[in-house]
Design a protein that fits this description.
The complex is a heterodimer of chains A (518) and B (133).
Chain A (H helix, E strand, L loop, with lengths): L3 H27 L6 E14 L9 E11 L2 E11 L2 H10 L5 E6 L7 E2 L12 H14 L4 H30 L4 E16 L5 E13 L2 E5 L12 H10 L5 E6 L7 E2 L12 H22 L16 E2 L6 H31 L5 H28 L3 E7 L3 E2 L3 E9 L7 E15 L5 E15 L6 E7 L8 E2 L3 E12 L6 E7 L1 E2 L11
Parallel strand pairs in A: 13-21
Antiparallel strand pairs in A: 1-2, 1-4, 2-3, 4-5, 6-7, 6-9, 7-8, 9-10, 11-12, 12-14, 14-17, 15-16, 15-19, 18-19, 19-20
Chain B lengths: L1 E5 L5 E2 L4 E8 L7 E12 L5 E10 L5 E8 L7 E2 L3 E10 L6 E8 L6 E2 L17
Parallel strand pairs in B: 2-9, 7-10
Antiparallel strand pairs in B: 1-3, 3-6, 4-5, 4-8, 7-8, 8-9
Classes of the chains: A alpha+beta (518), B mainly beta (133).
């Protein structure tokens, strides 16, 4: 009889399999040109044009014609397109000058099909999704290792996203303060209608300005360091109005890559959510490094601690403090990154003189939740450094009406403990579905058995567990459960207390105890 | 009409014991067969649940007759009542859809009484004075 708890990892596994199928299919299709053959080609012509007339479609177009020979046959092809970002064209024109040589990638099955550039390998980031889901499944199966899996997941996913998508624009934005000033002439500016993702149309502004450096004209359509597609339409309206054709304005260019020219070189607000994957990466690396260093240290085994044997069992917590911290951090980082992005939009709307009050109220509400989540991070971080209870049961199984010996000890900074309590709770759980198929549940505590209360700084000892025979053993139905848990609470002055829960499997009374006659 | 009678009239059992008895039928148009099953079911706040633990079929050869049945009880669950759920064990006999159906409750517990998770109350207040079967 499977419970929802045991179905969760299966659900994650299944979702991971589906995600893997789609991610692999997507990546395989997109990256197929990497299997094509590379030959040398000749650039026949490299042209660009600017459509100054208003209307639909991007204003900048390019066309690069080239020729290549494959298996004795000569083929001609071209690379062309339209864009709102002149930088794409500038980079292409520099890389593929007319009359120059270039690598051409040819489809061996269809030699007439070729391309000058390989696809963007960052599409491989989609492969992280199934791994994240499978890691979640593994974490559900083995809660003890959930923290470790989360750390690895944070490292790989946060690092993957940050290094692939955020690092380069962030470095450029930071180095822009050292770019050189120039005087740019505005060639044209206009507002145009572009199809929106919702099916309608959206107004967007396009500008083109240029400056001369050592006799070469460098053009740019980037008002700021953001891509034109990432800018807000209200911002663009103001930019288009400010940059009238023929006017001159101060601009800045990258002396190492002169095709990078902008008017506003301030750090783009759109990069702030990029702190989320960076935080994930740093936290994941920190947790793993700390774990590694701890393992490197030779820990002397605790005194009076029994050696592991088949007749005893070490209890594992349902959720580790590292898992709680990582979970809280993950949610807080993602939540607050989204809020930070929304805050930047609110600030922008206030600056533009047309404040968005609805968004501001929403941001205030979500921001309050973000603050609570952020406050939880240091709380759970302190929890990572609390002493850890080790509890060994002999015999390993607990049966109704029978005695089990519990040996307990706090490891780590046990000297910080002021007092410890260990107790067992039995509870009944009921599950039902309400309207709209919403799952509800209720828990009723029916038994609490106090095992020990040290009353002072005692860090280890032995106690006896006896759950009376006139109650229910652990049981899981489809819609109800009888759950037994062993709870450890340790008080630490001015620190996060120890709160650990261990799920117990309480078995029915054994044969030798059934001497009573009905 | 179908009736269930337990061996020695016994209705209290412990885990892994045998539940045996006879199923009787008489009167009216005889069914082709009667299905007898050992079940546990729940009532209370949680979505009701019914688990068929074991079942057997009895071939009906006349207008009236009787046949024996025997089931082995599993180790768990016990008959219990809490604030949210009450679990009941029973033997059921029925002759098919829309035909005769009879359910006789039994008690499965190591103590001889229904396990009460909360001594002071139960899932159904009007049955607080329930005596052991």
């Amino acid at each position: 009889m499977k419970s929802a708890r045991s179905l969760l990892p299966v659900a994650f596994l299944a979702a991971g399999a589906v995600a893997a199928y789609y991610a692999v299919t997507l990546c395989a299709a997109a990256l197929r040109p990497y299997a094509w053959e590379q030959v040398r080609g000749e650039i026949l012509s490299a042209e660009s044009s600017v459509s100054q007339a208003g209307g639909a479609g991007p204003p900048f177009t390019y066309r690069i014609a080239y020729r290549y020979a494959y298996k004795g046959q000569t083929h001609r092809s071209e690379d062309s397109g339209a864009t709102r970002d002149w930088l794409e064209i500038a980079v292409r024109l520099r890389k593929y000058p007319e009359g120059g040589q270039a690598a051409v990638y040819v489809d061996p099955g269809e030699p007439g099909r070729s391309r000058l550039q390989q696809p963007d390998p960052r599409i491989l980031l989609w492969l992280l999704l199934p791994f994240a889901l499978w890691a979640a499944a593994a974490g559900c199966r083995a809660p003890r290792h959930a923290g470790l899996l989360l750390a690895w997941g944070s490292l790989v996913i946060g690092g993957g996203i940050f290094f692939a998508l955020v690092l380069e624009p962030a470095i450029r934005a930071l180095s822009a303060s050292r770019w050189l000033p120039a005087v740019c002439t505005v060639e044209f500016s206009r507002m145009s209608a572009y199809p929106s993702s919702g099916g309608g149309q959206v107004q967007a502004g396009d500008v083109l300005f240029s400056h001369r450096l050592k006799g070469v004209r460098y053009r740019s359509s980037r008002y700021s360091l953001e891509s034109p597609d990432a800018r807000d339409s209200d911002d663009e309206q103001a930019v288009v109005q400010a940059l009238q054709p023929g006017s001159q304005t101060a601009c800045y260019y990258d002396p190492h890559q002169p095709e990078w020219v902008v008017i506003d070189r301030s750090f783009p607000a759109a990069l702030l959510p990029g702190l989320a994957p960076l935080s994930l990466f740093v936290i994941g690396a920190w947790v793993l490094l700390r774990r590694f260093l701890r393992r490197m240290r030779t820990e002397s085994p605790p005194l009076e601690w029994p050696p592991a044997s088949p007749s005893s069992r070490l209890l594992e917590p349902s959720v580790t403090s590292a898992g709680m911290f990582a979970g809280c951090l993950l949610v807080a980082v993602i939540w607050n990154a989204v809020v930070a992005f929304a805050v930047s939009r609110v600030v922008a709307s206030w600056k533009s003189g047309d404040p968005d009050l609805t968004l501001a109220i929403l941001v205030a509400l979500f921001g309050a939740v973000g603050l609570v989540l952020a406050a939880g991070v240091p709380y759970y971080l302190l929890g990572v450094f609390t002493p850890r209870p080790r509890i060994v049961l002999t015999p390993p199984a607990i049966r109704l009406g029978e005695s089990t010996t519990m040996q307990w000890q706090f490891t780590g900074r046990a000297g910080k403990l002021r007092r410890a309590r260990i107790y067992i709770e039995g509870s009944e759980w009921a599950f039902w579905k309400e309207k709209k198929n919403r799952q509800s549940h209720r828990r009723e505590l029916f038994r609490r058995i106090e095992l020990l209360d040290t009353g002072g700084p005692v860090f280890q000892g032995i106690a006896s567990i006896q759950i009376p025979g006139d109650t229910m053993p652990t049981f899981e139905g489809r819609n109800f459960r009888i759950v037994w848990e062993l709870k450890v609470h340790g008080e630490i002055p001015f620190w996060t207390d120890v709160n650990e829960t261990h799920r117990l499997e309480v078995l029915p009374a054994g044969e030798n105890r059934e001497e009573r006659e009905l | 009409m179908i009736r269930i009678q337990f061996s020695d009239g016994r209705r209290q059992f412990r885990s892994r014991e045998q539940v045996s008895g006879i199923v009787e039928w008489d009167g009216g148009r005889p069914p082709e067969r009667i299905k007898v099953r050992l079940v546990w079911l729940t009532e209370g706040v949680a979505t009701p649940e019914l688990e068929v633990v074991d079942e057997c079929e009895v071939n009906v050869l006349g207008v009236w007759g009787r046949a024996e049945f025997s089931f082995l009880l599993p180790e768990t669950p016990y008959s219990f009542s809490g604030k949210l759920v009450r679990l009941i064990w029973a033997v059921e006999a029925f002759a098919g859809e829309g035909a005769d159906f009879v359910r006789e409750e039994i008690l499965v517990s190591p103590t001889g009484r229904e396990i009460r998770l909360f001594p002071e109350s139960s899932v159904r207040g009007d049955r607080d004075d329930r005596e052991p079967l």
